[in-house]
Amino acid sequence: MDKTTPVKHILVLVDGTETSFRAADFAIALACTVQAKLTAMAVVETETLRQLLNVKILSNMEMDEFEKELQNSSERNIAEVRERALRRHLVIEDVIVAGNSEEVVPREVEARQVDLIALGGFQSNRATRDLLTRQRQQIVDHVSCPVVVVK
């Protein structure tokens, strides 16, 4: 990172929750303030669907249907963040990736040279029983850059 501008590229993870939209608003304001690039990213958790398929909870047809629904939901969530950014006259980059958050987010952070991640808040004591909380905690644990958790 450049010493004069420590944050040049912010990544906000968007999952449709209220806290992820608060994180997006924070990231938009910060990007405007420090003149950083902003990328909004959604992860379609296909790994979770594959695990459900492997233990016969989902059929192939159900998995395909759920994956399409997750993709559509991700597109709507990214569009909402894009609109919020445009209201602040900020053009963002957006990306939807499929896979396991624990693996794809660190890979995207490195590939995109992200300096800071904005992530919706979560309660760490729920990480063992709540899938979304667990995924967020894994992101915090595995990325190489600072993470701002927005409540």
Tell me what portion of residues adopts beta-strand conformation: 15-25%
Give a short account of the largest sheet.
Answer: 5 strands, parallel
Mean pLDDT: 87
CATH superfamily: HUPs
SSE map:
Layout: E1 9-13, H1 18-34, E2 37-44, H2 46-54, H3 60-87, E3 93-98, H4 101-112, E4 116-120, H5 131-142, E5 147-150
Parallel strand pairs: 1-2, 1-4, 2-3, 4-5
Helix pairs in contact: 2-3, 4-5
Structure keywords:
single chain, 151 residues, alpha/beta, Rossmann fold, five-stranded parallel β-sheet, 52% helix, globular
Short description:
The protein is α/β, with parallel strands linked by helices and 151 residues long. It is built from five helices and five strands.
Architecture overview:
With 151 residues, the protein is α/β, with parallel strands linked by helices. The chain has one domain: HUPs (Rossmann fold), CATH 3.40.50.620. The chain has five helices and five strands; from the N terminus they run E-H-E-H-H-E-H-E-H-E. The protein has helices at 18-34, 46-54, 60-87, 101-112, 131-142; strands at residues 9-13, 37-44, 93-98, 116-120, 147-150. Helix 2 (46-54) runs antiparallel to helix 3 and helix 4 (101-112) packs parallel to helix 5 (131-142). The longest helix has 28 residues, at 60-87. The model has no long low-confidence stretch (mean pLDDT 87).
